[in-house]
Amino acid sequence: MSEGTIILYGIPAYGHIHANLHLAGSLAAAGFRVIYYATEPFRPVIEANGCVYRPYSFRSDPPDLSDGKRILKLYRLLLQYTVEMLPGLMEDARRDTPCAVIFDSLALWGRIVGRLLHVPVFSFYSIAAIGPGGAGLWCYVSGFAGGFLRYAGELPRAFALRRVLWKVGVRELGLLSVLMGTGDYNLMGYARRFQPGGARFGKSYYFLGPLAVYRTAVEENDFTCPAGPLVYVSLGTIFNENRKLFREIVRQFGAGGQESDFPYRVVIAGTMGMTETEPLPENIIMRPFVKQAEIMERAALFVTAGGMNSIHEALYYRVPCLLVPGQGEQRVNAMRFETLGFGRILRNVSALRREAEQAMRLRRSWREPLREELLAVHMEEALTLFRGSRRDAG
Asked: pLDDT tens digit string along 176-228?
């Protein structure tokens, strides 16, 4: 017997979708029909996790999450996508008659659909939140303040879009309300201990743990993972250009380089902004995408920008991190991970090898009970919430 229909409005970016797929798949396995909105590249992994894929109909280009560095532009774009898609999404949702709506905390249109349908609304956070009383706000201010006003020209367009939404009864359209959307329930894809100011988050916030670690994956490697210990380098799928770091990896980690006694193979995911014809030392493999879990099982160190899913996957496989954050949210994660003792932030790229070796030594002293606490998943609590929401909607 079906438990009812849940609509999940995702953000079409790997970090966001991978964060909530285990939740979506668990709801599907529990008997709910889960309709998951995304874009075509994500159809295989959504369907592999037991959900019904449904495409967004963006009139503009789909979201470019590199705009996450340009907060005011991102704010305007989220309002614009909402104005464009809301009529069609509402028509579909009325036909689907969901018992609940889940929306990525950036997917404003999902929050509005749920509110207009008068069903329980669940926000899902794949990023650290700014919570009640501004908890966690200082971390984001330090990460984003530098270029904030550069995009002040976006504000007149944003205000015009807000007026369109006001006419259909939509409120809560301030900057923080759009970029950190909250629902009746707020589901956090990480542990409370990881959230800056986590103790101040109230009863509507449910810290489910790092769900991305437990999703069903569909990607495969097109190479044989090299034997022996290795260093894995991935700056993610969005903010991943760092030519200076790449050159230092070749110089300090590469066979035949300036420090050619480096005893590890190196696997790099992505191009880091370099051309595919860039010559590589024989101990370095570079691919556009890799099956991260397979590489992480063999890694002695993970050089990462600090994306939420990646650092938790490193924690799962007991791999210390050398953190190279590229934008504000990654800086929040990196600072927290360093404070907890599972990684260190790279401060001098010219001393990459020395800092990498210092990061690897963290494995000797980190606290295993804390690692287990950070990895714990509380899925039954989430399922209880959704079963209760079905009764509320009925």
From this structure: 899 899 999 999 999 999 998 888 898 999 999 999 888 877 777 667 777 77
Which among 90, 81, 82, 93 has a CA at the least distance from the CA of 6? 93
CA–CA gap between residue 13 and residue 222 (Å, rounded): 22
Among the residues of the chain, which ranges form H helices?
A: 14-29, 43-48, 71-96, 108-117, 137-144, 155-166, 175-179, 243-253, 292-296, 308-316, 328-340, 352-360, 368-375, 379-393
CA distance 315 to 320: 7
- DSSP-assigned letter for residue 296: H
pLDDT band at 237 (very low <50, low <70, confident <90, very high): low
The Cα–Cα gap between 108 and 84 comes to 12
Cβ atoms 101, 110 nearer than 8 A: yes
Confidence of residue 33 (pLDDT cuts 50, 70, 90): very high
Summarised one tens digit per residue, pLDDT across range 331-351 is: 889 999 999 999 999 999 999
267 and 295 in contact (C-beta within 8 Å)? Answer: yes
Instruction: With beta carbons less than 8 A apart as the criterion, state whether 10 and 16 touch.
Output: yes
- Among residues 217, 292, 212, which one has the least CA distance to residue 22? 212
Kind of pairing between the strands at 299-304 and 321-323: parallel
Residue owning tokens 């984003």:
144
What is the predicted pLDDT for the residue at 276?
62
Judged on CB neighbours under 10 Å (0-12, 13-18, 19+), 146 is exposed
Tokens of 33: 């029909």
Rounded Cα gap, residues 240 and 326, in angstroms: 8
